[in-house]
Each structure stands twice: as C-alpha cells, then as structure tokens.
C-alpha cells in the first residue's frame, strides 16, 4: 500500500475564521497536525481572539462565538509559537492553496512577522479530490475513508480528516506519487505572484489578473499609470498583494537610479 513519503515534516493545517475574505477576515481557530518523516504526529490547536466580532452566520457554521474567544490570545501573541511549530515544514490542507495559506500569511504580515514560504511545498488535498472525484470535505472523508466526519468545522477534526484523506488518496490512485514534491506539483495551479492571485506569472512576466488591466504586464502599467500603484496600496487588497506589488515597484525605481 503506498504511503506518504516524507523527507521533512508536513504541517496539515485547518483554519476557522470570521469569514472568507483573505484581506479583512481573521483566524479564530487554527489546528496544525505535524506529520514527521517517521509518521509520528504532533498536534497544536489554538483558539484566537480575532479582535473583531464574529458574524452570527459564521458562528452558525463552526459554533465559535465571541464569548468563546474573548479571553484567548490574539494572533500576534500566538504568532511566534505557531511559526516555530511549522518551521521547516511543507504544508498541506483542504483548499489551503487558495484560502488557509494566504490567510495565514496575511495574519503573520499584520503582526510584522514574515512567514517564509520560500522552499516550502504545498499540497492541496481538495485539489486532488476535485481532480479525481469532484466533491466536499465530508463527502471526501466518507468516499475515501468510509467514515462520517464528526465535529465537522472543528479545526482539529477537519485537519486530521484531511490527513487521513491524503493517505487514502495515495492508496486509491496508483498514478499518485507518495513524495511531497510530486504531490505539490500535481496540486499546484497557475504560477502566481501573490497569494490572492491579483498578479500571476505569464512567460516569466508579472501580469495583472483582475480589473481593467487584466492580462497587462504589471511593470508596463506602472510605467504608463504610476498612480495605479497608489490606488492599489490604499485600496482593500491583502497585505501580501501590496507587499509583492511594492517589490516590483521598488525594483523598477532602482533600475532608474
């Protein structure tokens, strides 16, 4: 039976949040299931005070209320502990490439800490599932593991189920390789500049992926309309997007000196 082959730890993460907007919503619970190369498991789950009200509609989904987190640490207070726990880990999750990882990076940026993603591999278990079967987390757990997902929308239960699904996927699909790098390659999407995918790479060039300049090279747009940079920096874009845009802008300015 194929089993996941690891050369370094794999952090399987799941977040419960105030909503789904990476730029404005906050983490209220994070679970990290760290799978070691010898397959031993370490777990860390933290409730977080988001510093903002949790909408009732969101509480109805995961059951976490303002009262539940009012005495919990803020993300800034928990950031170093979480970062150290995930040090030198590749990362897996369910829809993690588009939501959990971008939001986690955003939270670190808000604290002034950078969560370094260079050299890490990302495995999105949802992407494998959708490429192979097209369903949801609870259905995936039933389909692959023949179990009902108890405590769905509890971060730890979801993260553990995600890891079990990944192992079951490796058992089911002979064409999947069990090492992290080919799995990350299989689940990756278009090459992007920022996690929100407001900018992507095309033929080695940063290109806007939204709005009136969609498909245009970022550097070309900033040359002809430099105020577009100012507009984006003041608008409600994720900090990670603004950081990457600033990197491009500064590199252009340095070439002029």
Features:
257 residues, alpha/beta, five-stranded mixed sheet, two-stranded antiparallel ribbon, 11 helices
Structure explained in plain terms:
By secondary structure, this protein is α/β, with parallel strands linked by helices. The protein is built from eleven helices and seven strands. It has helices spanning 56-62, 66-69, 75-85, 96-111, 125-132, 137-145, 155-172, 180-187, 218-224, 227-234, 239-256, and strands at 10-17, 27-35, 41-47, 90-93, 122-124, 199-202, 205-208. The strands form two sheets. A five-stranded mixed sheet has the order 3-2-1-4-5, sandwiched between helices. Strands 6-7 form a two-stranded antiparallel sheet. Helix 4 (96-111) links the parallel strand 4 (90-93) and strand 5. Helix 6 packs across helix 7. The termini are far apart.
* Helix/strand order: EEEHHHEHEHHHHEEHHH
Mean of all residue-level pLDDT scores:
94
Distance between the termini: 59 Å
Instruction: Briefly note the structural class of the backbone.
Output: alpha/beta
Largest sheet: 5 strands, mixed
Lateral strand order in the biggest sheet:
3-2-1-4-5
Task: Please work out how many helical segments DSSP would assign.
Answer: 11
